[in-house]
Design a protein that fits this description.
alpha+beta, FAD/NAD(P)-binding domain, globular, 2 domains, seven-stranded mixed beta sheet, 22% strand, 443 residues, binds flavin-adenine dinucleotide, four-stranded antiparallel beta sheet
């Protein structure tokens, strides 16, 4: 008997059409009032603030997902968001209030006091979804997976961005631009002068989330680095110190235990990304073997994107110096504040940690956000102009979010004019909460 020939039901479409890319097809074009490039802590905060001002906003990121390092590198802790000491107060506002309230209410963030620094630990998955929802609700246009290829500058103004996406090329026009790329990619492509660390690399870190840890048997905060220094060589560990940020009650921890270079040369960056994962595996093997009661049954649930601290930053109208940070200089054009320590990662095996007292506060001047050679570009986040040590104390997420807000207020005040000519008092008034307000922490 012949086998019946299978037939396709009429409900299934079998039709195809032949397509071919049109030669010289023009790129897609988009126009916005403000274009924010980079959707990390600084860029998201900038985009939400610009939307709150009623501006038409385009938010661009090279990754296919929003959130930058805050979400995708599993940073897991908001630092620099509260003052030091036993009576902490919140330092940055804008989107931060809604974010902390929403995450706090669902148990996805909690405030942690410590004798020196007061931080908020958060669940990066919940933060990512919070950001996505906030951006959608604010009506912000999003362009993901779009990497800057060219920046057109005419008479000190950026007039056009040319971006490549996997779905084709895109061109963007806007009145003002925020460079929240972390690596000053917009300023760099515009041909503006930039800066890099002169004394060797600032190391990044490959973060991992470890699950199935036994919280009841966790070693002390000091025990892990002490043991790493004793036996690290046996495991091939480059970094001989590290931290496990435990999310209480959930048996998971974010492990910050590696040091990896983060070069900007494409092949070297790719090779280092793989090296970072290998280092993370070694650090976890160390934890499992040396602290078996706590980590013996643990396993890696996820690897973050490479964690990149400091690579390249703008040459601004003013440089924030480590002397300013230590002295707490209050600049006439201050736009943000923080009390986070100087935290330098420029040696492979350890880092420098210089904390400040309970009453310390340092400030970020608007001049350090403004590329000297451009009139309608403002940097925000970890690519502003600061010396190596000063940058290490202001690139944490609290001040990054404050910088994003200041950047769009400056562009809003400048309109079709120059951000170098806005009235500092008017800008200060716009960001007053981030300089003066002192709310107590929630929870
Ligand atoms: C391992 C590690 C641990 C840290 N721990 C803490 C901590 O506990 N608490 C804390 O507050 N801070 C911490 N920091 C610092 C902090 O996380 C970062 O400095 C901060 O998140 C930087 O935010 P950002 O918005 O400036 O940049 P990023 O988060 O780096 O965002 C930049 C965005 O720009 C996009 N981009 C870059 N180039 C291009 C391009 N050419 N075209 C298009 N898009 C582009 C990127 O895809 C990215 O999404 C840590 C950093 C690291 C690396």
């Amino acid at each position: 008997m012949d086998t019946p020939v299978p037939t396709v039901t009429t409900k299934v479409s079998t039709a195809t059409r032949s397509v071919r890319r049109a030669p010289n097809a023009p790129p897609s074009r988009h126009r916005a009032d403000i274009c924010v490039v980079g959707s990390g802590a600084a860029g998201i905060s900038a985009a939400l603030e610009a939307a709150r001002l009623g501006r038409d906003v385009l938010l661009v990121d090279g990754q296919p997902v929003l959130g930058g390092q805050a979400v995708n590198s599993i940073v897991g802790t908001f630092c620099g968001l509260f003052s030091n000491g036993s009576e902490p107060y919140q330092l940055t506002y804008g989107m931060v209030g809604d974010m902390l309230r929403d995450l706090g209410e669902t148990g996805a963030a909690y405030f942690r006091r410590s004798p020196h620094n007061n931080i908020v630990i958060y669940d990066e998955v919940a933060l990512g979804r919070w950001m996505e929802n906030a951006v959608r609700e604010a009506g912000i246009t999003v362009l993901l997976g779009a990497v800057l290829r060219e920046v057109v500058v005419e008479n000190r103004r950026v007039t056009l961005l040319k971006l490549a996406t996997r779905y084709g090329d895109v061109e963007v026009e806007a009145q003002g631009f925020v460079d929240a790329t972390g690596d000053a990619a917009l300023a760099w492509q515009a041909g503006f002068e930039c800066q890099e660390p002169a004394d060797g690399p600032v190391y990044g870190t490959q973060m991992v989330v470890l699950e199935n840890i036994d919280e009841a048997h966790l070693p002390s905060r000091e025990a892990i680095p002490a043991r790493m220094r004793e036996v690290g060589e046996k495991y091939g560990l480059l970094r001989r110190e590290g931290l496990a940020f435990v999310i209480p009650g959930r048996g998971i921890a974010a492990m910050n235990m590696t040091h990896v270079e983060t070069p900007l040369e494409p092949f070297a960056a790719s090779a280092k990304a793989l090296e970072g994962r290998d280092q993370a595996d070694r650090a976890v093997r160390f934890a499992q073997t040396e602290f078996p009661e706590a980590f013996g049954k643990s396993r890696i649930r996820s690897y973050g994107f490479p964690g990149i601290r400091q690579t390249r930053w703008i040459k601004g109208r003013q440089q924030l110096t480590s002397q300013d940070v230590v002295a707490g200089t209050r600049f006439p054009d201050a736009i943000a504040r923080t009390a986070w320590p100087i935290e330098l990662h420029n040696s492979g095996d350890e880092h420098v940690w210089q904390p400040f007292g309970p009453d310390h506060m340092h400030y970020i001047p608007f001049g350090s956000l403004t590329p000297a050679e451009g009139d309608n570009v403002v940097a925000a986040g970890r690519c502003i102009d600061a010396d190596n040590a000063a940058l290490s104390s202001v690139r944490v997420m609290g001040p990054c979010m404050a910088m994003g807000q200041a950047a769009v207020h400056a562009l809003d005040l400048a309109g079709s004019g120059s951000v170098h000519q806005i009235d500092p008092a008017a800008l200060r008034e716009r960001v007053r909460d981030n300089l003066e307000r002192r709310d107590r922490p929630y929870g």
